[in-house]
Design goal:
Structural class: mainly alpha
Oligomer: single chain
Radius of gyration: 20 Å
Number of strands: 2
Shape: globular
């Protein structure tokens, strides 16, 4: 099977867990586990695309007024459509037998960062979504990013750095929102809670 052959090549050439035990270098994962990781990544990309469409796009297509408002403002639909397209591209690349499994794993880590940024932009780029009577909770990135620690096998330090970058993009997307209109309804206490809580609790 192509996946098994690619997995063997990945293990031989690019060890995912470079650890030193009693002076010996070890690789960490069997080829079968790498193949299973690729399968899980494919499922995760389709889950991302489906959930993004059902939660962020489909509800706005039902009502004519909602549809007019949604498509009338690019900040509403551009992050969602780009995120869905990106997930489908990663799924297609993960399906290709020509791409080594080690490359697919790296694409999976890149997908973690970009997908978290897409979620955060969809949540905060449109400023009226922050006007919730002064209250705002954690980003959905808090539920999404930890999944990659199970799906993508990699060194702990590398996984921690990728996850940290992913959750920091929540704050970046918040700052990208129109400053005056985005935070006008938020009290100083609410803004402080948002900035202090999102990185530690997401991470």
């Amino acid at each position: 099977m192509p996946d098994a052959e690619q997995a063997k090549a990945a293990v031989d050439n690019i060890p995912l867990f470079d650890t030193v035990l009693f002076g010996r270098r070890t690789t960490g994962l069997a080829p079968e586990l790498l193949s299973q990781s690729v399968s899980r990544l494919r499922i995760l990309t389709l889950l991302y695309a489906f959930t993004f469409f059902m939660a962020g796009v489909f509800p706005n297509l039902v009502n004519p007024e909602w549809r007019a408002f949604y498509w009338g403002n690019p900040e509403n639909w551009v992050p969602a459509l780009i995120s869905i397209a990106m997930a489908l591209v990663i799924w297609a690349l993960a399906m290709s037998p020509r791409i080594p499994l080690s490359t697919v794993m790296n694409l999976g880590l890149a997908f973690e960062v970009v997908s978290c940024y897409g979620i955060a932009l969809a949540e905060y780029l449109e400023p009226t979504r922050l006007n919730l009577n002064g209250w705002i909770g954690l980003s959905w990135v808090a539920a999404w990013a930890p999944l990659f620690t199970v799906v993508i096998p990699t060194r702990p330090v590398k996984a921690a750095l990728v996850t940290l970058v992913s959750v920091l993009l929540v704050l970046v997307s918040f700052l990208q929102a129109k400053p005056k209109s985005a935070t006008a309804a938020m009290t100083r206490k609410t803004r402080s809670v948002f900035f202090i809580s999102n990185v530690p609790l997401n991470f």
